[in-house]
Amino acid sequence: MEDMAVFKGYLRSLMRQLKSLKEAIKNKDLEKAEILIDELIEDTQNNIED
C-alpha cells in the first residue's frame, strides 16, 4: 500500500509539472519549457533509480 501512495505522489507532481509545461508552451516561453522538461527528465530518472 505504501508503494501506491508513493506512486500517487509522483503522479501528482507529474501533473503539476505537465500543466506548467503546457502553460509555458502556450505563452511561447521556450526557456521555461526547456527547464521544465529537464526537471521532468531528472525527476523521472531519480524515481526509476529509487
Task: Explain what this protein looks like in three dimensions.
There is one protein chain. With 50 residues, this protein is mainly alpha-helical. The mean pLDDT is 91. The longest helix is centred in the first third of the chain and has 25 residues, at 2-26. The chain is built from two helices and no strands. The relative contact order is 0.13. The two termini are 17 Å apart.
Summarize the structure.
The chain has 50 residues and is mainly alpha-helical. 90% of the residues lie in helices and 0% in strands.
Low-confidence stretches: none
Q: Structural class, from helix and strand content?
A: mainly alpha
- SS field, number of helical segments: 2
Tell me the distance between the termini. Answer: 17 Å
Total DSSP E strands: 0
**Largest sheet: number of strands, sense, barrel closure:** none
- Amount of beta strand: under 5%
How much is the average pLDDT? Answer: 91
Helicity range of the residues?
over 70%
| Secondary-structure element order, N to C | HH
Please tell me how large the radius of gyration is: 12 Å
Shape call: elongated
Task: Name its key features.
50 residues; mainly alpha; 2 helices; 90% helix; elongated
Helix and strand layout, with pairings?
Elements: H1 2-26, H2 30-49
Helix pairs in contact: 1-2
